[in-house]
Design goal:
2 copies of one chain form a homodimer. By secondary structure, the first copy, chain A, is of the alpha/beta class. Chain A is built from 11 helices and 13 strands. Among the domains of chain A are: 237 residues, Type I PLP-dependent aspartate aminotransferase-like (Major domain) (Aspartate Aminotransferase, domain 2); 43 residues, no CATH class.
Chain lengths: 407, 407
């Protein structure tokens, strides 16, 4: 969309009152995104979003994960509105907290308890704290580059943090059993936890599914050395398997962190864990002003129930295969071979021979002009509102985008 | 209330699926609260809340701060509902973000930019990171005991954290200029920031207003050594002075952290700052899945506008003076002298000769049985829904509570 006067005006106003005009993972300035991408959004409905200038997009950002059942899903929004009529942030939790904890422990295979928070970072940080409290140890093993949050010791950009913040983090290579074993051996007796994402979803590079042998090795290593295995499902939760991303591999973590999709856009995060870590979880002090608010929990209950009932991961898998097949065929036909890597429910788009992402920016920029919001370097997200019809509409538009690039 | 079968049943269910049955600052088990206090809440309306057994309370917790304009304030809820009909968590921010940043920079005296987050801890942590990014220094000076959040280096309970987490925190005594100067001198050249609450509001002990000379000394010290002065208004924001808590003292911080009351119960936090810190604020990487959600921003705009229009701090001050005078007179008459300390908008209740808080537990326990929710050891909060009539109704009930204790 080239005609975006409202967006442009808002960017100019934002530059005066917001540092950098925008910050964080939703920044859409021209250093990070194609110039045709809007920064400010007006509304969403199902698989579609409208920018502040009224341009409609088929949305493959899905708010970077939260939109699992589509924007303004009627079941979720009805549950949220009903709870809002009673109360949201009260002087203690509502019954929804117990109901949601019961639902999660009944849904996620390894979960015997649940705690709630607001940010994905809250959940990953709390999981690490539970592991340290339980083991009395300090070191956290994580894969190099892997994003687990934006606190002082997880943030990928260390500006404003101190060297001391990372003293207890030890990195290894994802899917590399030997490097993981080596990292553990170097801190023998002091490893509190190993934290892993269900697959490798670093930005800018092709996504990589987990090697089942690596997942099993992580489980065995953690058990052998008495450390907790933490699965960071903040990005993947409810999109791969509602029982837990590694359940089909027969690998169960000790702790899982959830956020993003858990309440279809309402702000909530959760840590779930095994019984052996319950005393440690009860002993740490983590809290927040809105962690017990009832509306996001009512929305979360509706979201998790619906996702399980309709088998949301399978719906998104079928739609994702259709998108992947269509886009890869279009790219090949246009002489611009591309691949969608990672699980098809949350694919990352990448062109061959495109080290500077010029093709990715050009293609997603042309797609945006035709009403399709695809990300040039971060994994995308499908929702259950991305039906076959929506995928076919997408492909008609991306076909035109390829044609424009070749004209 | 002694007849709480629903609450009891929920506590039993919670014990199975939530560590400790509950966690964080809203825990109401009998180790921390009088046995007549409910743990689970059903709804709220104005100054009143109802527990899950249908018992009504005049609410002086106000969700530990968020309820500024009363539960389910119609102006705020209408703004939130209108925004929810368009969209909440979209694939980028809405125009509400710019409008809210403009409103805050137009309201808070020192604010020239604003950033938003979800938790109070997010805001205090981000403010420290801005200060470190700007100065290239590491040390944070804070008052001993003062609560500024629950992250690994702020949490008052260190279980599950590491010794390294606190290496860069240096403590001094609140209202003690010499101790603050000494702490700064001991880390000459490496102090990134001084963080202070507008008054001393530690739990369990009498609250203490800031000595204006101390506030001025903190400002002068920070300026002299090139450190940032951070005011933590997470708990006080919009209750003392909408322009900033120290504005009437003529003391302006460089950064202020807000959360709790900012959107009358909707989950949001903010950091506002001076122009000199804008580049550092633009350079750090802080973000969260729901930080740009539009509904809490719409609610925040309505809350801040309303608070300024009706002079919410003054309304709560008048009501708070009435409550303080009434309760202190009742205590004296009953032979149980008590004081409400700190600003009357957010007073802390304490009895004379009550080192183990036995009187505080007994009195607040009896008050709860009569439909008044007062906190035995943490500061309480008034809202603008606490009218003179509500205060008088409160005092009629607390009078009966004192009579019961003396019978």
């Amino acid at each position: 969309m080239t005609n975006t006067p409202v967006d442009r005006a808002l960017r100019a106003r934002a530059a005066k009152v917001i540092p950098g005009g925008m910050y964080g993972h939703m920044t859409a300035d021209e250093r990070t995104m194609p110039p045709s991408f809007p920064q400010f959004w007006e509304r969403g409905e199902g698989a579609h979003t409208w920018d502040v200038d009224g341009n409609r997009f088929i949305d493959y950002f899905c708010a970077f994960g939260p939109m699992l059942l589509g924007h303004r899903n009627p079941v979720v929004e009805a549950a949220a509105a009903e709870q809002a009529r009673a109360g949201d942030t009260l002087s203690g939790p509502s019954a929804r907290m117990v109901e949601f904890a019961e639902l999660l422990t009944g849904t996620v295979a390894h979960a015997e308890w649940a705690m709630f928070a607001k940010n994905g970072t809250d959940a990953t940080s709390a999981a690490v704290r539970v592991a340290r409290a339980s083991t009395g140890r300090t070191k956290l093993l994580k894969a190099a580059v892997a994003y687990h949050g934006a606190n002082d010791w997880f943030t990928p950009k260390t500006v404003g943090t101190t060297p001391q913040d990372r003293l207890n983090i030890v990195e290894f290579d994802y899917n590399d059993i030997a490097s993981m074993e080596k990292a553990a051996a170097e801190h023998d007796g002091d490893v509190a936890a190993i934290i892993l994402t269900p697959f490798r979803h670093d930005a800018f590079v092709a996504q990589e599914l987990v090697d089942p042998a690596f997942a099993k090795a992580a489980r065995e290593l953690a058990t052998r050395i008495g450390a907790a295995l933490i699965l960071d499902e903040v990005r993947t939760g409810l999109r791969l398997d509602v029982r837990g991303a590694w359940e089909s591999l027969g690998v169960r973590p000790d702790l899982t962190a959830y956020s993003k999709a858990l309440a279809n856009g309402h702000a909530i995060a959760a840590v779930v864990g095994v019984d052996g870590l319950r005393p440690a979880a009860a002993d740490i002090y983590v809290t927040g002003s809105f962690w017990y608010s009832a509306v996001p929990m009512a929305a979360g209950i509706a979201t998790v129930r619906t996702a399980a009932e309709i088998d949301a991961p399978e719906l998104m898998r079928v739609a994702g295969e259709r998108l992947k097949a269509g886009l890869e065929a279009q790219g090949a036909a246009a002489g611009m071979p591309l691949r969608l890597t990672g699980p098809v429910q949350m694919p990352l788009l990448g062109f061959e021979d495109d080290p500077e992402l010029k093709k990715a920016f050009a293609f997603t920029g042309e797609a945006a002009k035709r009403g399709v919001l695809l990300h040039p370097w971060h994994n995308m997200f499908l929702s259950t509102a991305h039906t076959a019809e929506v995928i076919d509409d997408t492909l008609a538009r991306t076909g035109e985008a390829f044609a424009a690039l070749n004209s």
